[in-house]
Structures are given as C-alpha cells and as structure tokens.
Amino acid sequence: MLALGLLVTGCTSARVPPEVAQPEAADPCLVLTGAGSPRDTLRVALADYVSARHAPVAHTEAERFLFRQIYETLVRVDCEGTIRPALARAWRSADGGRRWIFTLRDGARFWDGTPVTAREIVAGWRDHGVIDATWDGVAVRDARTIDLAFTEPHDAAAFASPTFAIVKRIAESAWPLGTGVLWIRDTGSGVTGIVRASPVPWTTGAPLLELHAAPGADGRDLLDQGADLMVTREPAVRSYATANPEFLAVPLPWERVYVLVSPSRVRAGVTGQFARVIRQEMAGEAVRADARAAAPPYWWEQLGRCQLPAAERVPPASRSERVVYERDDPVARDLAERLVAVAGTVDAGVVPGFAQSEAVAVGLTTASFATALRAGGDLAYVLSLPTTAFLPCRQARDVRRRMPWIAPLGDWGLGRSLLPVVETRAYLLVRRGVANLTVDGDGGVRVMAQPAPASR
Amino acid sequence: MTFRTRLLLAFAAVVAVPLVVLGFGVRREMSNRLSTQYEGRVASLVAIIEDDLSNESEAIAARLAALREALREDNRFRLAAVQAVPTERPYLLDYASDAMHLAGLSMFQIQDAAGRILSSGHFRNEYDRLDPEVPLRLAVVGPRPALVRARTPEGPVLALGRLDSLQVGGHRFVLVGGVTVDRMFLTRLVRDPDLTVSLLAPHATMSSDERVVDLLDSLREEGVDRAALEDRLLVVGALELPYVDWVPDSEQQASVLLTYPLTSLEELRRSVDTWFLIAIAATVAVVLLIAGWMSTRISRPIRELARRTEQVNLDRLDVDFASDRRDEVGALTRLLGRMVERLRGDTVRLREIERRATVGELARQVNHDVKNGLMPIRNVFRHLTAVARDEPAALPGVFVERQGTVESGIAYLERLVTNYARLYPSLEVQACDVNTVVREVTAGARRSVDVELDLRIGEGIVAINTDPLVLRRILENLVRNAMDSLEGVPGRVTVTAAPMDGAHRGVRITVGDTGKGMTQEELDHAFDDFYTTKASGTGLGLSIVRRLVADLGGALRVTTAPGEGTTFTIELTELTPQPTTNDRRAARA
C-alpha cells in the first residue's frame, strides 16, 4: 500500500517507449443494416432484467448490451481482435506488459458534464475494488495521463474489459455516471421492465434506446410487437427473423465454449480416447443451437504467465450418477442428455465411472449449480466459459474459485481438466435500416452514434 | 384382604369380564365382515382396472397408427431416414419429440430394423443407440397392455407401451409409444378412495398411496412372499402385466396390486378399541363407586360399633348404642346397647354387694376398734366402781387420776368415727324432688351478665328415690363446666329435666351450653382424671361426675361439636330407698 501511495503521487523513473497516438481506422466490424433512415428511438428486446447494482460489469447478456452502450473502457477490441481507442486516444506499454500509460481523449465528460480526469478514473477504480493485489501501482501523471503497473503482464485488450470501465458514483442516482454518448436519467432502483438510454446533450446522431426486458417471452412475439433489435440464441427465432425480409440476422462471434468436467477424470488425470469419443459424440447433432466443435480457448494458452495458486484439494469421489447442468441453459441441457445417452457406450477403461447406464441428467438453478460444482461430488458437470478473456488470469482464478478441486492451472492445465465440447454464438437480429451497429471481439454489440461509411 | 377390597374385586369381576368378552367378540366379527366386504368390492374393481388398462393400451395403439400414417406421408422423414440427406438430419432428430407431444404420448421412439434409435421424443439425444430388446419383447406380448421401462435423461421411467411399424422405401421402421405410468396414473385407476393401487415392477415400486410404497419397498428388501404381503397389507386383488426392459433376460412380469391398506381398518379397530376401553373404564368406575358406596354403608357402622364397643368397660358403661337402622347392623347395635344396659344394672348390684361386704367388714373393724376404744373406759369405770365401794374417800383422787384415760379413750373414739365417716360417703337414698335440686343448683350458680341461664323443668316430674346430695354435686359440676365453657363470651346454658319413658321410673336431666364444644380427641379424654382444657381446672370435675352418676346407677352421655357447644345428658332411674338413721332408731325402739 505504501508503494502504491508513492506511485500515485509521484512518477516512476523506468524508461517507457514514447507515446504513439492511435489513429482511427475504418471499422471492419460495422454492421450495415441497409438503406433507410436511422430512427431517433430504437426498441430493443432484452431477455433479462437489468440492474444498476451490477454496473458496469454485466451479469447477463441484457446487461452486457446496455452497459456496452453507456459505459466506456480505455480501449475496445473489435471483432477482428484489433485494439481500438475508446476513452484513451493513445497508450504505450513497458516492462513486458506489466506497465501501461494511457492518455485520455480530449473533451471526455461524464454524464453530469464534468470532465473526465485521470484522478477521477483512479478514484472510480478504487471505489469498485478494481485495484487489487495484482496491481503494482498507479500514478496520475497529469489530468489526462495515468500510469498503471501490474505484477503480471497484460495485453492491451485487458483494458477493454468491463472491469476497467470508467464510472463515477453519485448519491443522486442508482446508475453510476458513465462517459458514453448514451445515459440513463432514471433515479430509481434501476430494475424495471423498461429502461431508456438517452443521448447526452453534447452529442448528436445517437438514437434513444428503449430497452424492454421480457424474460421468458418468445422472441418471435417480441419481433412481431415492434422490437428493432434483439440478440438471440434461439434457432427458431433466428429462423423466423431470417424468413422476414424486414430483419437482418447477423451471426456474432463464437463467444461461448461449453466444457465438460468430471471430478473422476480430473482425479485420474486421463485424457486421450475419452476426449475423442466424447467430443465426437457430443459435438455433432446433440445441440439445438448454432454450434460447432470446440477447440480449447486461446486464453488457456496464456495462463502460464499468471501467478495461479495450486489446487486446494483433491477432486472428490463421485457420490452420485448425476450429470449436472444449469437449468436455464438449453445447450448445456442437450450436452448433458447426450452424455447420459452415450455413457453406457464409452469404454469403461477410459474414464472411471462413465461406463454406467444409470447416469441421469439433472438441471439445477444457478445457485444450486454453483454449490454442486464447488462440492464436486457428481459424475460430471456441463458449463460454459467465454471463448475470449480480456483478463485470462482473472478468468482462470474464477474457474478455480468455482471448482476448488480442479487440476493445476497454467500451461494448458485447464486442458487437462476441462474438456471443450462445443462453442456457440448468438445472432443479432436488427430491423433493416434503423441503425448502424458494430460488433466487438467478445460478441458485444454497439449502436453507432453517427452513420458510418459502408465498409463490410 | 379387607371386606371392602373383596367387595370391589367381586363387583369388577362380575361386570368387567363379560364386557371384555363382548368387546373382543364384536371387534373380531366387525373385522371379518369388513374384510369380506372389501374383498368383494375389490374383486369387481380388478376387472374394471383391467378394462381401463386395455382401453388405454388400445388408445395408444390408435395414436401410433395415426403417427405411422403421418410418417408414411412425410417426405422429409423419407429423405432423412431413407436417403440420409444431411440437411434433414435435425428434422429427423426432433421429429419424435414434436410427434409425441402432438399425439398426447409421453414416450415415443422410432427405430430402424436393426434396433437403432433414429428419433426419440422422451430422450432426444439418445439417437444412434441400439435398443432392439424393447420392440422384440413388445412384439411377443402382442396387443395386450405391457409395461415398458424407458430411458430418459432424468432416469428410467415406466410406461404403458405399444408397438407399431411401417415400411418406407423398402426399409422397416418400428414405432414404440406409450404413456407414463406414475403415481398420478395409478391414482386415476383408483375408483374407490379407500383402496390403493400399487405397481410392483422389477426396478420400481409405486403406489397411489406413498405410505404403501415404503411398506412395499421394505417388504421387498426383506424378501417376503405374497402371503406375508397379504398379512401386512390385506391384499385383495392382483393383476399381472408383461414387463419389457431394454436389458436382455430381465424379469418379464410386473404386478398391479389392489390393496386395502391396514391403516384404514386399523383406524376403525383403534376407534372401536378406544370406545371399548372407554366403556370398560366407565363401567369399572361406576362399579367402583357403587361397590365403594355399598361397602361404606356396611363397614362404616361396623367400624363405629367397634369403636363404641372398645370404649366399654366397667367404668364406662354409659356408651350409647342407640341406632335407628333396621338392618342387621342396627339389630347388633341395639343388642349391644341392651347388653351394656344389663351390665350397668349388674354393675350397680355388684357394687351394692361389694358395698355391703365392705360395710360388713368395716362393721367388724369398727366393732373391733370401738371395743378397743371402750376397753380402757370400761376398765376405768370398773376401777372407779371398786374405789367407790371400797374406798369412797379416795374416789375423787382416783377419778382425777383416771380422768385422762377416759378422755383419751373418748378422743380416740371420736377420731375413729371421724375417720370412718370420711372413709365412705354412703348414699342417702330418699325421696328426692329433682326439680327442687335443679332450682337450688341453678339459683346458686355463679352468674354473669353475658350468660343466659335457661331452665326447663318438665311438669310430670315427681320425687324419685335417689341421693339428693350426690345429685346436687353432679349438677353443680356440670353447670359450672357449662358456665366455664363460654369463656366470657355471651352465650346460653340450658338445663332441662324431664321424666324418662320406659319400664323403669326415672328422670333425664340435660345441661347444655353454646360454648366452644370439644373435639373428638378432647371428648375421648374428657372423663379422664386430671384432664382439663381450663387454665385453672383440676381435671377432676367430669371424672367425679361420671363416678357419681355411676354411684346413682345412672347413665351419662355427651354430645358435642367444636364451636357448637356441649350437652351432657344424665339418665337416672329410681333407687331402692335405704333406711334412714331415724328409721333405724325407730326400728331399734
């Protein structure tokens, strides 16, 4: 803490490369919705409620869509993996990615009109607990320059993580103030069926977003009822939108990988034939979604540089014949059921406990699933992980937290414990001509403030 | 064992034993009749349930036939299943699920001729699994209802299943469909809410009543046979069903049991038992009360009679044995009363005899003592006579010389008389006006302004032969005691005198007060010497009264209660008059 304080008030003497301004390039991820005049108000259908308490880190896809529109990070990653400026106009790194210096763009303001300063950013991060033990220090060089130091190397993409979103909490609003071109003026609890994100007064060209939360509703009904924009994973909804010439269905990046984890397999450390058989059986027709066979996510390869703790304990012996999944996830359910169907056909010598015909698939609520996963007393679990990770080390720690019994992490350690089966993606359904959009590398969708020239 | 205990036991045995025998008989007869009645009802229900299962099976067959025709016309199915067009593969995989729901089935599966699952409605992702056993065994069963064990992601389920097949493009496809047999299904089969329908399958046990499931499972674990099951459950009907499992060589029979749970009959039995016990308890209680009352009616007067009898001795012959009971106890009481009365008379006579004997002895003693006293006097007189005759001049001197001897003899005789007079206060029986004595006593009683002295003298009283002096002493003691019992508080002392009825002439005198009365313990010691409840009393008053009354041949009774006062009753009969001194002088003259 002393070192951190000194760093905040002073400057480091390490040599850093000269700052290079990042030029604005044409956005290859722009989604052109066709001819037509953009609307002042867009109706967006959401599959979940949104809560101001979670801002700026989304807990659901609905919150991810909304927070992406109203909060900014220092940089963003487009659908091709290119780092693009956001709140920062320039940046440079040193010490193998352990130190980063960002220069904020000119004229950046919070929703209340106050300018965004480096000191405000640091204060916001402190309030949200972003600055933790993995930080080596943070220094405010001037009003628009901050100097960040970490104990482990980071990529520039790390600063596109919502964890690093720039917010300022005020007492008058449940919603923390952001720096985006859309803002929420509601001062209530932030959990309502309809949320309106309006353009801030000092910007032009951004539409008002009227977000309607309709959990459990049929997406086709929402489209018929006037929704202009929707993100869906339902094949039937996608098929319906595709058949409707008013809508455009745009596949988003493969952003979710479903993995199978079996405590007995982790304990026995077996690989090889089991992985081949299972992936062959489960990757094909088992899933009723847009899915493909999965490879281990790229970020698993980067765990070697993380300072990850060892396993807390040995995986427990299976006490049940359950293949457990999260009840609200249809893909996980399909995979669990397929695993149950083929359990009796897998070679008994490959994985202890899998050559049983009495296995059953059991869907649990989110909380119960988390509890069961932490206990590790079941035959197997099906769960999803993001294919992209801005902060791989943090993601790996989260996996360890969810499964304390998982095998050693790092250097493909997750590959010895988790078996990727399929990866899936969602679809963006948008009414033609109502707005232009762009897609981030993690599948996030942004509504563009200004009509952009055609590039895709 | 006391008389009362024997009486209680006798009553209990006489009443309770027949009641218990009656209760057991009623309970057994009721159980037998109910069992017979339910067996008859369930026998008819077995046939009804068999019909229901057949109808349900036929309905399933009809739905499978409809699906068969739809499949035969479905080109996408033909492309997927026969031509193996990859783009139609998802359609085939999802076909069974949609068809199953449309047909109202809960189990539906399409297999090829080799037994490979092409599409499954109840387990979508079990495609490509080989499962030839179920169609083969269903084919053997034929059109009868059969129980099929089917796999689902959540575990095996039981279904009432049927089989159908079709030919498409030269390929044979098998359709297996059914409806789930679960607790709700069994409940729908129950036409009588008192009955339970249970299913005993090789891998499952279920029932319309969950309590029966636990019992069946426990019995199955114990490996008991059907007879034991009937003993526990009162099984009254059974229906055998073919059982089809995907596991080869598994058991092929399941049983539908119609049972009347013992719980219902047991509840009825418990109810009967409860009321029966209540009846016994009430009967025993009434018997005990009656027996207790009767034994009390008998034993209490006997105990009272024993208590009175225990008080009787020669000094206490005034115990009252009066009774107005007309039963044997009353007769015995009166008999004892007469016996005590005779004893009292005999005692008076005995005392008179003793007194006379004592008087005779005393007379001899007096004679002896008087002779001894007279002897020196006579000797002096003989001496004086001899001096007067022989020496007259010396007579005065001799007289003076012997005068002391004479006086000493006379003094001795006087002391002797005094002593004898003090030794025995003899009765002076004479005609005595009782009313006069009562008036004199009450007139001389110590008076207090707070005490009202109520004197009630009967008109018919005449003089009776008794000792007035003794009677006076008795009354003075009693009246004084009555006055003292008031202890200075306002009250009343009542003295009555009245002639007694009966063969003997006599008088009944009562002295009553409204004073503090006596407890039973005080009464028990009231006539003891030196017993007193007064601070300055000698404790001899009532003791003397009792002896004096006994001397007069009378009876003394006391009625008292704490806080209500005390009444003494003296009953005197006429004594035989004794000759007075004058009479004796006259007689001597």
Question: What does this entry look like structurally?
Answer:
- The complex is a heterodimer of chains A (456) and B (589).
- Chain A has 456 residues and is of the alpha+beta class.
- Helix content of chain A is 22%, strand content 24%.
- Chain A has eleven helices and 23 strands.
- A seven-stranded mixed sheet of chain A has the order 10-11-12-3-13-21-14, with helices on both faces.
- In chain A, strand 8 (135-142) and strand 9 (145-150) form a beta hairpin.
- The longest helix of chain A has 14 residues, at 330-343.
- Chain A starts with a helix and ends in a 9-residue tail after the last strand.
- Chain B has helices spanning 3-73, 75-82, 89-103, 133-141, 183-189, 210-222, 226-233, 262-311, 328-390, 395-423, 434-443, 468-485, 520-525, 541-551, 581-588; strands spanning 107-112, 117-120, 146-150, 157-168, 171-180, 196-201, 204-207, 235-244, 253-259, 430-432, 451-457, 464-466, 491-499, 506-513, 555-561, 565-573.
- Chain B is rod-shaped, with a radius of gyration of 60 Å.
- In chain B, 55% of the residues lie in helices and 19% in strands.
- In chain B, strand 8 (235-244) and strand 9 (253-259) form a beta hairpin.
- In chain B, helix 2 crosses helix 3 (89-103) and helix 11 (434-443) crosses helix 12 (468-485).
- The longest helix of chain B is centred in the first third of the chain and has 71 residues, at 3-73.
- With 589 residues, chain B is of the alpha+beta class.
- In chain B, the strands form three sheets. A nine-stranded mixed sheet of chain B has the order 2-1-5-4-3-8-9-6-7, sandwiched between helices.
- Chains A and B meet through helix 8 and strand 18 of A and helix 3 of B.
